[in-house]
Structures are given as structure tokens and as C-alpha cells.
């Protein structure tokens, strides 16, 4: 079963985020607290939405998908960015990942979104094969850029005074 997450799912979502970060060899980077997730997902201005996959037989939470809308200047339309897709290892192979992606595709179609995009680590061969099996196109010519920490602060310090005052 696929369903929208509720506030009661926040501890389970946080646990799965940590499980995913451990799998991706980056557990120390998964610092989001339950309070932060609660505000981001269920606060006054939600930043993202989450779907939960539950095992039909046991009712156990098998996985989740966290997404948010994005906008394409080229198409002039909104799209969907899938930030995280995670299915717990002991529940894999039962169709939860495909069901989550199918539900997200249906949300895209229902909202008129033309693009459904996400990232995958280049070493995650099982995920790459899974996505390609669904017909996903891997855009190898694009490289993700990221500013954090000191470089982000240094660049922000160069902003015009009007922009710095609005922070």
C-alpha cells in the first residue's frame, strides 16, 4: 500500500533517512532532527511531501519517497524532484519501489508536471539498473554542483548589500 505520510510517520521517516545515509556511506551527513522534518513536511509552509510504502501483509513501513515541486524555465512548467527513494533491504523485491515510483508518476500526471527527475550515485549499480528498467534516462552530461560551509558563506558575503539585508 502507498499512502501520504502523516505527522505520526516522522520518527519512521527519520529512521529511514539514516538507514539510507548509512547505505550511501554518509551516515554522519544525515543530521535532520524529527523537529526539522516535522516543520519541513507538516509546518505552515511545507518544503516537501512524502509517500510511505507499507507491506500489505504485515503493515510494516517498507520504504518512503520524499519529493518536492521544481520549475523548468525551458518548458515553462512545473516538475517533480525526487530527493529520496528508499526501500528497506529486507522488503526489497516485493514491488514497493516500483509502487512508490508509479504513485509519484501519477502525481506528476495529475498535476500536469512534465518532468520527474532524481539523482542516483554512480556506484549504485542495482539502483541504476532498476531505474533504467523503468525507462529512466540517465543524463550523464549534467554534473551536480554544491556550495556548503565556508565557500557558501564566502559567496554570500559578496552579495549586494540589499540582498544581504534581506537574509
From TrEMBL:
PROSITE patterns: GNAT. Keywords: Acyltransferase, Coiled coil, Transferase. Residues 13-40 form a coiled coil. GO terms for molecular function: N-acetyltransferase activity. Residues 1-158 form the N-acetyltransferase domain. Belongs to the acetyltransferase family. This is GNAT superfamily N-acetyltransferase. It comes from Streptomyces griseoloalbus.
